[in-house]
Every structure is written in C-alpha cells, then in structure tokens.
Write a structure and sequence with these properties.
By secondary structure, this protein is an alpha+beta fold. It has 20 helices and 9 strands. Among the domains are: 138 residues, Orthogonal Bundle (Butyryl-Coa Dehydrogenase, subunit A, domain 1); 120 residues, Butyryl-CoA Dehydrogenase, subunit A, domain 2 (Beta Barrel); 147 residues. α16 packs antiparallel against α17 and α17 runs antiparallel to α18.
C-alpha cells in the first residue's frame, strides 16, 4: 500500500480560509516577508520532502528497527541519510531566530511540518521532535557561553537533543528524582544517576547529542524545588566522549525506529542551565512545546491511518451495498457500505476539527511571542495554557482509538503486517502516555488551572468562542442540534460554561472531586471546542463541498452527542460531592 502523502491543500484551507492565519500573523509585524504566498510555498515544499524522503522509510523503521552494540546505537537503514538531508535543507530551523541561524518563520509552520513527519514516519520523527523545545530552553535560560557553544547547532538540527527527566522510581512525580550533580572547582558538575525512557538517548544520526538533565545538587531540598537543569553533551568540546552510557534500548510495543534508552551518567560533565533549584521551570519550556507537538502527532497518525483505510475501502469489494441497484455484479467497493462510510467520515471529522484547534493554538503561540499589544499577548498565553492540555489529551486519544477503528476497515487484513495499518496503531499508543499522561493533562486543566481562578479564565475563553460562533448570525444546517434550528455550537459551549461553574462550587465541598471528575470534564470541554472548530469550518466559503460536508454531518450525528453523556456524569458527581465521604 502507498506511503503517507501530505495534502497541503487541506492545511492551506484550514489555515488561510478558516483561521485567517495571514491576517493574524501580519498583525504581529514580526514576519514582514511571510505572506500567504510564501507560507503556501513552504508548505508545498515541506509536503514534498516528507512524502519523498521520510515516508518511504516507515516500514524499515519497524523492522529491523534500532540495534545496540558495544554502547552504540545504529538506526534503521536510510534513517541517517534522511536526517542529514533534513537538517541540511534547513527544516529544523524554520521557527528559530535568524541570529541563531534560523529562518524566523512562524511556529505554526513547524507545527504542520511535524504533523506530517509524524504521520509519515513516527519513529524517525522522534529524533528531531525535541529540537525546538531544547532550543527555547537554552535560549531563555542558558549562559552566554552555553548559547554560543550549543545554540546554533541545536537551531540548525546539526546536533540533536534529549530531555532526561524520568528515573526508574520517578515518572509523573519528578520530585522523586535522585540523580546527583556534584559541583567541581572549575564551575562544571559531575552528574551521577540513571535516566530511563530517553528518546534518542544514543544514535548515529548526528555527530553529537545534547542531553538536558534534571539533577539535584548537594544540600538541595527534597521535592521538585530541589531540582536543577544541566547540559551534558555526548561529546565534550575537546572531542572526548562524556560519561553518558547507554545501558540498553527498550523493546517496545511500537516506535521501533526510535531508540528509547536507559542512560547511566557516570560522572558525566555538565553545566547548569538557569538558576539552582529552578530546573523544572526551565524544563517546562521544553515540555509545553512538546505537548503541542504530541497533539499533532496524534492528529498526523490518525490521518495516516485514515489515508490507508480510505484507499483500501475504495479497492476492496465485498457483497452488494445496501440500496445498490441489482446488476450483474455481486459485490461493491466496501466504501459504499454504511458501516465503513461511518468510520471514515467520523475519523475525517476528528482530523479536521482537531487540526483547527491545533493550528489555532500554534498561531496563539506565535501571537504570544510576537504581538505588539500586551493584552493580546496575554490572551494568547491564556489560550495556550487552557487549550494545550485538552489538545494533547484529545489528539492522542483519538490518534490511537481512531487508528484502531481505521484498522477495522481492513478486517482481518488489518491485523497482519502486510498492509501497514497495525504499525500505526502500535506506534500511536505511547503518545497518550509521554509528555504528561492524558490523566495528568485532565488534572492540570481542572485542578490546577480552572479551579485556581474559580473558572474565570476558561469561562471568558468559552464566552469568546460563543461570540465568534454567533458573529455572522448564521445557523448552519450541518451543525444544527435539532429541527428547531438551535445552534449546537452555542449550546455546547454554554453547557461547558455551566458545568464549569457547577464543578467549581462542588469542588469547594469535596477536595477529591477534581481528580475524579477531571477526565470527563476535559472531554466535555474538548467536545465544545470541537463544535466551535467545525462551526468555523462550516461557515467558510467552500466548506459546502462533500469533502467537508460529509465529515461535518458525521461529527454532528455521532460525535457531539457524547457531550450530553459527559455533562450528565459530571452533574451527578457534583450533586453527590462530599456526601459519600462525609457519610
């Protein structure tokens, strides 16, 4: 079956027609040469590179995968050459500052590029996936000496980077980390400890690897406030090999093209990045950027699964479709069967709706960084803080679940390796876990952000989307909640606002409720955002074509009604808040 092929026309429609990205970016004044024509050209060239260079390596990344011999990791055939072409063509440097060797283009372009890369070859894309986060971390927190030595190499992608957080006993609770950083007389540190689940911790793609490591200095207090961040390269400036040892690479369910390493730091030489005890704050610059990337991974992998399922459904013939005219043939392409059509339309609806939310978030990242008006920058930061956990959880959950449903289109053929769909299902599963599990995302949204201000910021965001949905006074038939013409978008957004207010009140009576209700609450908010995204699509000229109208109808009929169930669950939890525990 054919490799994944980006469809730049879809991205261009959503970016420039639905979201009016050209106007939003022009308002920043930061991208004077980046008009719609240039951005379109960049997307077209990115699509070609992904389709011609990266996508053909998808299957070889799964088998034979990576190999570890004598402490050195060899990546699958073709991976090193493809990565060299990637960084030499300037793709890692799209959104980096020109003074650091970057191209100074909007971050939203990088987001689209990495969505395509993940769809084409998730294992290969894991290698450069942390580059921009590492770049931002070092740019904002590194000393002048560290920036001079490492920032241009990271910006260009000539050297890759890792994020060394997790330890065998410290996963989501990083405050338990025990890796030690012992200060030396010359200002350097010796790092001692073991880190696990380190993506790209050892490989042959680049001549050096820059490890960013959380560790604890002597006398540091316990918990997260005692952690500092350190930079420890694979090779030191004098060319000597640093004391970073790859003990093994994990045998994983998927992502065989990405070496997930156990790294042992044996008095590895490192330099502190930022202030003592503020390592998590510096690292969160990487983590927030990574979470948006992971959401886009889920969307891209779902698109890859959908492309395979759609192509197969057009070719595979089985029995006469219901309602088909009787003729000589006894079989129709399965795409004509309602059960298959339903799967394809629903997943297409998720892909397009999530893309609108992801691209809007990417644009808000650009506005938060570059808009001249402080109030607009603050609003953009608020959007990213509230929507990123929803986007990460919804995008990755749908990436895995939707890919599994696309496998269903193949029947038994989907369960064997020949067609390639089972690899996508395996590769997509981990995205629900790393960069903060989806459960952590839900807790972050409700317990840490919504309850912190009594729900005021999220209520304002949802109210703004309600105003946007009603700005043209139109009720779109594809998004009507019922025959009476009530607008499902407005109703869902109001439901999320009402539920937020009820939860805030109930959580004040029950300290455990935020953690019990978080997953259902995130899902409700996500469905409300999805409804808004499809409202934006539906009111855009050109969206009445079947390409957009069919998934819009599927979202209305088969996706948005889930919000009623989530609201009912949350209403019962609010009503019972504290009662059972008090009894």
């Amino acid at each position: 079956m054919a490799d994944y092929l980006p469809q730049p026309a879809d991205q261009q429609f959503l970016l420039f027609d639905v979201l009016q990205a050209g106007d939003a970016l022009a308002a920043t004044g930061a991208f004077p040469e980046a008009d719609a024509g240039l951005l379109t050209q960049v997307l077209d060239e990115a699509g070609k590179f992904v389709g011609e260079v990266v996508a053909p390596l998808h299957r070889v990344g799964d088998a034979p995968g990576c190999r570890l011999e004598n402490g050195r990791v060899t990546t699958p055939p073709g991976f090193r050459e493809a990565y060299r072409a990637f960084w030499q063509a300037g793709w890692p440097a799209l959104a980096c500052a020109p003074e650091d060797g970057g191209q100074g283009l909007p971050w939203v372009l990088e987001g689209v590029l990495y969505e395509w890369l993940s769809a084409a070859n998730h294992g290969w894309t894991m290698a450069p996936g942390l580059l921009h986060g590492a770049y931002e971390c070092l740019k904002h927190h590194g000393s002048d000496a560290l920036k001079q030595a490492y920032l241009p190499k990271i910006a260009s992608g000539e050297w890759l980077a890792t994020m060394c957080l997790t330890e065998p006993h410290a996963g989501s609770d990083l405050g338990l980390a025990r890796t030690q950083a012992v200060p030396q007389a010359d200002g350097r540190f010796h790092l001692r400890g073991t880190k696990i689940f380190i993506s790209g911790g050892e490989h042959d793609l680049t001549d050096n690897i820059v490890h960013l490591v959380l560790a604890r200095e002597p006398g540091a207090p316990p918990g997260p406030k005692g952690l500092s961040l350190f930079l420890a390269p694979k090779f030191l400036p004098d060319g000597a090999r640093n004391g970073v040892v790859c003990e093994r690479i994990e045998e994983k369910m998927g992502l065989h093209g990405s070496p997930t390493c156990v790294l042992r730091f044996d008095d590895a030489i490192g330099w502190r990045v930022g202030e003592p005890g503020r390592g998590l704050g510096a690292m969160f610059v990487m983590m927030n950027a990574a979470r948006v990337h992971v959401a886009l991974q889920g969307i891209g992998l779902l698109d890859a699964a959908w492309q395979k399922a759609h192509a197969y459904a057009q070719e595979r013939t089985q029995m006469r479709a219901p309602g088909a005219a009787r003729g000589e043939g006894a079989a129709d392409p399965i795409i004509r069967h309602p059960a298959v059509r339903r799967i394809l339309d629903v997943e297409r609806g998720w892909i397009d709706g999530l893309r609108v939310l992801a691209y809007r978030t990417a644009l808000e990242l650009d506005l938060a960084k570059h808009h001249p008006d402080a109030a607009r920058r603050q609003a953009a930061q608020q959007w990213c803080a509230l929507v990123t956990p929803v986007l990460k959880a919804m995008g990755t959950e749908q990436g895995f679940g939707g890919a599994s449903r696309c496998l269903q289109v193949f029947g038994g053929h989907g369960y064997v390796k020949e067609w390639g769909i089972e690899q996508i299902v395996r590769d997509s599963r981990v995205a629900m876990i790393y960069e903060g599990t989806n459960e952590i995302q839900a807790i972050d949204l409700l317990a840490r952000k919504v309850l912190a201000d009594g729900g005021a910021a999220l209520d304002a965001l949802l109210a703004g989307l309600q105003a946007d949905a009603g700005s043209d006074g139109a009720t779109h038939a594809l998004l009507q909640a019922d025959a009476g013409g009530d607008d499902a978008t407005h109703a869902l957004l109001q439901s999320a606002r009402d539920t937020t207010a009820a939860l805030v009140a109930a959580c004040a009576r029950d300290a455990v409720l935020p953690y019990e209700a978080a997953d259902d609450y995130l899902r409700l908010v996500g469905l409300a955002l999805l409804a808004w995204a499809w409202h934006r699509i539906a009111r855009t000229p050109g969206a009445q074509a079947p390409r957009w109208a069919e998934p819009a109808a599927a979202v209305r009929l088969r996706v948005l009604p889930e919000a009623g169930m989530r609201q009912a669950i949350l209403a019962r939890q609010c009503a019972a808040a504290g009662a059972a525990r008090a009894a």
